[in-house]
C-alpha cells in the first residue's frame, strides 16, 4: 500500500502541494483517532482541521480515514502515509534545528591548521573545548608550518590556524594564544645535563648547537639569534633543521644541544635531558590564533569566543 501511495504522488505530481500544517493535522488525527481531541491538541477549532484533512485527501486522491460518528480509523493508505508524514515532519524539524545551529555557530565545519609542536600541548585543549561546547561542529585538521598556514588562511582554504608570529598579512587577524619557556635539550652525558638549577645562556658560548633554518623555521631561528645576541653569546651551529622533532633527534644521537619550546619535553625521548634556562623573558615562545578578517563562518567565531 505504501508503494500505491508513493505511486499516487508520482502520477498526480501533488507530492509538493501539501503543507506541513496538513501533515501535522493528519498525524494528530491519526494518533488521537478523533478530530475533536486532535484539534484540542493542536490548539485550534475542529472545522479548520477537518478542512485540512479533506484538502489533503483531495490532493493525494486517496481516502486516509474511515470516519464514523464515534471513532476515526486509518485506511490502509492512511497507515502507509502516516510513516512518511512522521518522517517528513521529523526531517523538517531537524532541518530547522540545523539551520539555527549553523547560524549560531553550533553546527558546521572548521578547517584548522596547526604546527607540529602545538599538537603536543595546545591542540588537545582546543579540541576538548570543541567537543564540550560545540559538539555538532566538525573539525578537520591540517598539520602545516606557519608559512603554509598563512597562505591557506589568506586564500580561504583554512578557517583557523595555530601559528608563530609575526602575522604580517593585513587580511588576517591574530591574537596570542599561548606563551611558553625555552628549554635546553641536552644529549646523555653532556656536561650540563646534570643538576637542577636553571642554566645560563653564557654556558652555551662556543658549544655545539643544533640551529633552526632561517627559511624553513624562521620564527625559531630569529628567536634564538636575538636571544643569544642580546646575551653576547655565540654557540657553534653544527646543523640547521626545520622541525623541532628533528632537532631533538640530532640531540639524541649526540650531535649537539638545542633550545626547544617547553612542550617538546612531552616527547620524553630516551637519551635527551631537558633543563630550564634563565632568560630575560621567561616565556619567549609565542603561539597565535590566526584567522581571516572576512571569514563569516559562524562556527569559527563561536570557537574564537570560547578560546
From TrEMBL:
- Protein source organism: Saccharopolyspora spinosa
Q: What is the lineage of its organism?
A: Bacteria, Bacillati, Actinomycetota, Actinomycetes, Pseudonocardiales
Domain (HTH lysR-type): give its ranges.
18-75
Listed Pfam families = HTH_1, LysR_substrate
What's this protein's name? Answer: LysR family transcriptional regulator
Q: Which family does it belong to?
A: Belongs to the LysR transcriptional regulatory family.
Concerning SUPFAM superfamilies, the annotation shows: Periplasmic binding protein-like II, Winged helix' DNA-binding domain
The UniProt keywords, alphabetically, are:
DNA-binding, Transcription, Transcription regulation
PROSITE patterns, alphabetized: HTH_LYSR
- Coiled-coil intervals, chain numbering: none
Is DNA damage there in the keyword field?
A: no
The answer to whether keyword Transcription regulation applies is: yes
The protein's matches in PANTHER family, at most eight in alphabetical order, are given as: HCA OPERON TRANSCRIPTIONAL ACTIVATOR HCAR, TRANSCRIPTIONAL DUAL REGULATOR HCAR-RELATED
Gene Ontology cellular component list:
protein-DNA complex
InterPro entries listed in its UniProt record = LysR_HTH_N, LysR_subst-bd, WH-like_DNA-bd_sf, WH_DNA-bd_sf
In the record, what terms sit under GO molecular function? DNA binding; DNA-binding transcription factor activity
Amino acid at each position: 500500500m505504501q508503494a500505491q501511495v508513493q505511486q499516487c504522488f508520482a502520477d498526480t505530481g501533488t507530492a509538493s502541494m501539501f503543507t506541513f500544517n496538513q501533515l501535522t493535522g493528519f498525524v494528530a488525527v491519526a494518533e488521537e483517532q478523533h478530530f475533536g481531541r486532535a484539534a484540542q491538541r493542536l490548539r485550534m477549532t475542529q472545522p479548520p482541521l477537518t478542512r485540512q484533512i479533506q484538502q489533503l485527501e483531495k490532493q493525494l486522491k486517496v481516502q486516509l480515514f474511515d470516519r464514523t460518528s464515534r471513532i476515526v480509523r486509518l485506511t490502509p493508505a492512511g497507515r502507509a502515509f502516516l510513516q512518511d508524514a512522521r518522517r517528513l515532519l521529523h526531517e523538517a524539524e531537524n532541518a530547522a534545528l540545523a539551520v539555527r545551529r549553523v547560524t549560531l555557530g553550533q553546527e558546521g565545519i572548521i578547517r584548522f591548521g596547526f604546527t607540529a609542536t602545538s599538537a603536543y600541548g595546545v591542540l588537545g585543549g582546543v579540541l576538548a573545548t570543541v567537543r564540550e561546547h560545540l559538539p555538532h561542529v566538525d573539525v578537520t585538521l591540517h598539520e602545516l608550518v606557519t608559512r603554509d598556514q598563512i597562505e591557506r588562511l589568506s586564500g580561504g582554504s583554512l578557517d583557523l590556524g595555530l601559528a608563530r608570529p609575526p602575522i604580517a598579512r593585513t587580511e588576517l587577524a591574530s591574537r596570542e594564544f599561548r606563551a611558553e619557556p625555552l628549554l635546553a635539550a641536552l644529549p646523555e652525558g653532556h656536561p650540563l645535563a646534570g643538576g637542577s638549577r636553571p642554566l645560563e645562556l653564557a654556558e652555551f658560548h662556543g658549544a655545539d648547537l643544533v640551529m633552526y633554518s632561517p627559511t624553513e623555521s624562521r620564527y625559531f631561528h630569529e628567536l634564538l639569534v636575538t636571544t643569544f645576541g642580546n646575551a653576547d653569546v655565540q654557540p657553534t651551529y653544527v646543523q640547521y633543521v626545520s622541525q623541532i622533532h628533528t632537532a631533538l633527534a640530532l640531540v639524541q644521537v649526540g650531535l649537539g644541544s638545542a633550545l626547544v619550546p617547553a612542550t617538546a619535553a612531552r616527547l620524553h625521548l630516551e637519551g635527551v635531558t631537558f633543563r630550564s634556562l634563565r632568560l630575560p623573558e621567561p616565556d619567549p615562545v609565542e603561539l597565535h590564533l590566526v584567522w581571516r578578517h572576512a571569514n563569516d563562518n559562524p562556527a569559527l567565531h563561536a570557537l574564537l569566543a570560547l578560546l
